[in-house]
Design brief:
The complex is a heterodimer.
Chain A lengths: L1 H26 L2 H17 L10 H19 L21 H15 L2 H11 L5 H8 L3 H21 L10
Chain B lengths: L2 H10 L6 H9 L1 H21 L7 H44 L6 H11 L14 H8 L4 E3 L6 E9 L2 E8 L6 E7 L9 E3 L3 E7 L3 E8 L4 H11 E3 L2
Antiparallel strand pairs in B: 1-8, 2-3, 3-4, 4-7, 5-6, 6-7
Helix pairs in contact in B: 1-3, 2-3
Classes of the chains: A mainly alpha, B alpha+beta.
Chain lengths: 171, 237
């Protein structure tokens, strides 16, 4: 009993950040992301004995989280409206150039179709290989690679098309 | 590796370390530049993806699990308690059943067992004789009456016939004593009109409130005994 508790706490501490970020990029809402992570970890606790290989923990948790996210849509289909740009939360006040760029890029990533953004997030944030992503998303590897290519391509084009000066000018 | 293939490979995975892409970068400065650009882009993407995690999320997760676990625990102990209670009840019932139910299911089996149990007690040629009056006094408990003796009565006593108060009569027989039971009717034991084993034979007669069972060995005519008894016995209501 105790060892299970210890395992669980270690799992939470090591992976809750990655999982939260992944959830955030899936649903673009802080609160929903938090709920998803909570639900995911609760399910993970119940099924913790089925996790044999600790190395697979991250992909295991992500699989649970994706299922949980899908369930959210089953529950309330009417909530599937496209989010507006304005609803994307400004996670920090714009102060430095770096943060400004982050914010801008976040919007661009949010605007990617989910089938492109998801593999990208898994690759960049999760550090998963093409094969890993393919198994997680239940796609074949070539499809994953094509989507990754298109995702980066779109972001790069958006970056290149961006005006040199950004921001708001008054007066 | 042509330019398009190279670009696709780098776009799909900027950290692609396959021999082909490395070789391509070494042979072509512009390809190397491109790879670096995309790596930079990736760095930016990673920066952008690092949204701040809400403070105390891990504590919240652990708390929530602990609470949920506690509830499951509580529910489990309740289930265990209920289980233990059920087992206790079933155990009690079993004990009750075993202690107070008869081991024999029909009159005949019990009567035979009873006779065997008291086999040595009564000798066929004893001088004891019970008078008709004292027999009838005992018979009054069962609202019964014998008009005359049907044979030499060696013994007449109350006994426990499977927990029921009954009358145990022993008559002198041809070679061995003949046992007659007067037993109040009871639903626990099924009525068996004739029964026997290797040595003893028995017959039962059903009256209004009582059964009369005769057990004797093969030398006796049970029919005769039955006939005599049913002709002499009378029941008051």
């Amino acid at each position: 009993m105790m060892t299970k508790q210890v395992r669980y706490e270690a799992l939470v501490k090591a992976l809750h950040g990655d999982l939260y970020r992944y959830a955030y990029w899936l649903c673009h809402e802080k609160q929903v992301a938090e709920d998803l992570v909570q639900e995911t970890f609760l399910r993970a606790w119940r099924a913790l004995d089925s996790l044999k290989d600790e190395k697979a923990a991250k992909s295991w948790l992500i699989t649970i989280l994706r299922r949980e996210n899908a369930r959210r849509f089953e529950r309330k289909r009417f909530d599937m409206s496209e989010y507006e740009e304005a609803t994307i939360t400004d996670t920090q006040s714009v102060t430095t150039e770096q943060q400004l760029e982050n914010h801008w890029l976040r919007e661009k990533i949010s605007q990617l179709p989910p089938e492109y953004s998801e593999p990208l997030i898994l690759q960049v944030l999760g550090g998963f290989s093409g094969e890993d992503i393919a198994t997680m998303l239940d796609l074949n590897k070539n499809t994953v690679m094509t989507r990754l290519f298109r995702a980066r391509n779109q972001l790069k084009e958006a970056l290149e098309a961006e005006p040199v000066k950004r921001g708001m000018y008054n007066g | 590796m042509d330019d398009l293939q190279f670009r696709r490979a780098i776009y799909a995975d900027p950290n692609n370390q396959s021999d082909e892409t490395i070789a391509a970068q070494q042979n072509d400065a512009s390809k190397k530049q491109f790879a670096q650009d995309i790596c930079q882009l990736d760095e930016k993407i990673l920066q952008a993806l690092q949204v701040p995690v809400p403070e105390g999320l891990s504590e919240k997760l652990i708390l929530r699990q602990t609470l949920a676990n506690h509830q499951v625990h509580k529910r489990k102990t309740r289930v265990h308690l209920a289980l233990a209670a059920s087992v206790a009840i079933v155990g009690g019932l079993m004990l009750n059943f075993m202690q107070f139910s008869s081991a024999y299911s029909n009159l005949g089996d019990y009567a035979l067992a009873h006779v065997y149990h008291e086999q040595g007690v009564f000798a066929n040629n004893t001088d004891n004789q019970v008078t008709l009056a004292s027999l009838n006094k005992k018979m009054s408990t069962f609202d019964g009456n014998f008009s005359k003796t049907v044979g030499k009565l060696i013994s007449a006593d109350y006994c426990r016939f499977d927990g029921m108060k009954s009358l145990h009569l022993v008559y002198q027989g041809v070679t061995n004593p003949v046992t007659v039971f007067i037993v109040p009717k009871n639903e626990q034991l099924t009525f068996s009109s004739t029964f026997n084993d290797k040595k003893l034979f028995g017959r039962s007669m059903e009256f209004n409130h009582s059964n009369i069972i005769v057990v004797a060995d093969r030398n006796e005519s049970l029919g005769e005994w039955q006939k005599n008894i049913s002709e002499t016995v009378s029941w008051s209501i």
